[in-house]
Write a structure and sequence with these properties.
eight-stranded antiparallel sheet, alpha+beta, 19 strands
Amino acid sequence: MAIDTIEEGKAEALETGFRGTILTPDDPEYDGAREVWNGMIDERPALVARPTGVTDVRAAVAFAREHGRSVAVRGGGHGVAGTAVADDSVVVDLSGMTGVLVDPDEGVAQVQGGATWGDVDHETRSFGLVVPGGVVSTTGVAGLTLGGGYGWTRRLWGLTCDSLRAAEVVTADGEVRRASADENEDLFWALRGGGGNFGVVTCFEFDCHELGPEVYFLGTFYPLDDAEDVIRQWHELVDDAPREVTADAVLWTAPDHAPFPEELHGTPFVATMGMYAGPVEDGEEAMAPLRELATPLLDISDPMPYVAVQSMLDEYFPSGDRYYWKSHYLPDLNEDAVRTITEYARRRPSARSIIPIRSRGGAIADVDPEATAFGERSAPVLLSIDGTWADPAEDEANVEWVQSFWDAMQPHSTGEEYANFAMFDAEEERASFGGNAERLREVKARYDPENIFRHNANVRPSETA
């Protein structure tokens, strides 16, 4: 497609005093700069700005606003919807801003907006600390946090956004604002689950928690034929489990490599997978019932370093493959819902597609749904439909499977979905804002009235604010 380019002289004006790199469609590095994790995304921005610091970010945002351009923000570039780039936009690419500074005495980590969870875990582990992050280490801190953030410690310490204590934000007017419980409180409220609607977050400040270095990992794999019974038992056990237990039911197919033995390669299964956020010996005892739900095909449950748990799924989500994901919050797992899930697991056109059923409750539900922009706190389960494949020729079949599955689960859903697992292929707002949508629109009108930050689970500015 044709790119709505920015005149050369105007682009050069941004370069004055800009310490980072600016790429236009004529630059040899441009095509590489517009690639993101999801290989389905093929967007052509007008300009990619790679800042080295806050001053560069301010300049790029001001430039976009002055020239009538939207801003796409690239943190880790790992979002499934691919919103880190957008046609004809100015991309603010934070990949050069990945610093992590840990204060072990205060139990605080300051994390720049381009960092990944691997960057965070690498620094915090030296002090026996963790920040509740995701389950794939290449995931960007920014996108995960702003959308909520599910990880292996969520039932004990809540969502990632619940550990956010402050943020430095460049808003649409080019100003730098600190958002916390005491400063710009409305912006701080919105950042915790409201997505990338309100500016470029150049630095996050998180509370850290003591954990590790070893934890107990749960990984027990059962035949898919036992899925309905395993899911029901798993749901009952996790509901009553200690908060240190975060465990999911996962429907998938054994890949052709370790830790799966050759005789299991290509075998579909249902697994209980999770982590105990506490002493290893307590974890082994607490996880034991989840290892005895049927006769296992394989059990790799064992103590392991926390950082190993955090990165063990990385290889299954490589950059450049095709991803189409959707989700539902489920108020319960009734018989019909479980049957539908297992039927669609058998119908996956790609053996790499995964169906995680994530446990919630615990600390997630402790937070008042109006206390943060992330409003869906009550549903005990998040169903994720993770279409994953490599061949572009298989796009239609895999997208159709995800959409059909999602449609079939609508009768069992709260009607909301997790913003970080949405494709934004519909105009209406679909995210976990609950009853907070109108308040979010008012905050949006205050900090981004022209909606230049619209490549996200978009919140449109209120007309009455």
